[in-house]
Amino acid sequence: MILFENTRLISFAPPAVSAPLDLVAWEPGEDEGQPGKIAAIGKELAKRFPGAGKTGAGGYLSPGLVCAHNHLYSALSRGIGVPIKPSKDFVQVLQHLWWRLDRAIDLPILKASALAGGAEALCAGVTSVVDHHAGPSAIDGSLSVLENAFEELGLRGILCYETSDRNGKEGMKAGIRENLRFAAEVDRSRAAGRGILVEAAIGAHAGFTLGPESMELLGEAVNSSGRGIHIHLAEDRFDPAQSHSSYGKDLMARLEEVGALNEKSIIAHGLWLSREEVELMNERGAYLAHNARSNMNNAVGYNDLLHNHRKVVLGTDGMGSDMLEEFKFAVFRHRESQGPWWPGDFLACLDRGNRLLENYFGGSFGRLETGAAADLVHWDYDPPTPLEAGNVAGHLAFGLSSRSVRSVVVNGRLRIKDKKPLFDLEAIGAEARTQARRLWKTMEGIA
Ligand SMILES: [Zn+2]
């Protein structure tokens, strides 16, 4: 067992800050209690649990942060040393950069980028990453490579492979197959009673690279696996325009027709969805993953209907995994748009990533209470103003940052202790730089 003493507990939904308390969690593999869960919260717990290892004291303890849309395969693109033609629009950004990069990914490159991106997530207090993977030259087994990296780091996640027609019919079918293979693997682990750290979704690239047959197969995969679709929709104006011109219908209608909209659906971006499509998502309980920084960087516009969505979650879309940084961008870009939301509304979005985890894993996430998942961050935060229930969101928007992360626990297992990662961060970085050079070299040969 691990014990935090005399620490103030920060809750995100509803926002709250407690008086100093102790918290005890079960570690994975313990015979008694509920491994990976919070065992008790109260006063003087060292007396009640004399065997618990003292893990930290003072400061603040909060639930771990969730990144609800990411692409760890892009972790080795930072400062990319490959000539990239200037792009006039979003589709050219995909053609000139991302579709060249993902074709150059083999399994060693994927492993290095997953470890590097996942390690950075943990260092930023992010305990769960919802990933959307692409790598058409190495599809089979790719989700297991990612899973191994998550397990090695002790990071929680939901994985999928982005099915797409852009690499031909065989490529599309290989994508569906990999999603179903991995979901079945997770099901077998669950049936065998093994604790799982990684769940599966059904991945799809975007409406404009998926024809009717692919949509049909995705709908079948969603329903046979009992998972949700994880797809980019209406990231750019081109996506709905292509849907209307090629199929005479809205993007969301295409998902609805194949039965792919449910309460596990993750729709990334959605900037150019209509009011009717937002309404349909709300009725089906689908999540909208908002990626403020990525939208700004790709100049695709702003989601003016954001506040009409019932279930907004926040993601980075591959721009690192620092969710406090992402939270700030989401708040400030919204303020600039003169929208109706305030930091507290975005805090609810940040917290909602935990509801997504609950939909996939079951159990209770993002709550500091007995029996909830022990995914925790211990913060070294000494604010210049009082931190109380009414201003938690204000402290996140204007103060708290990942440099205050002191210790990180995922599933009851310490991953960072007193600012020291309990995984080999140096070796991960060195291998990532080696693989990045190889990735860039391969990209040079891809038009
Ligand atoms: Zn994305």
From TrEMBL:
InterPro entries linked: Amidohydro-rel, Aminohydrolase_SsnA, Metal-dep_hydrolase_composite, Metal_Hydrolase, MTA/SAH_deaminase
Q: In the Enzyme Commission scheme, what number(s) does this protein have?
A: 3.-.-.-
In this chain the Amidohydrolase-related domain maps to 60-414
Q: Does the keyword Hydrolase apply?
A: yes
Alphabetized UniProt keyword annotations: Hydrolase
User: Per its record, what are the GO molecular function terms?
Assistant: hydrolase activity, acting on carbon-nitrogen (but not peptide) bonds
The name under which this protein is listed is: Putative aminohydrolase SsnA
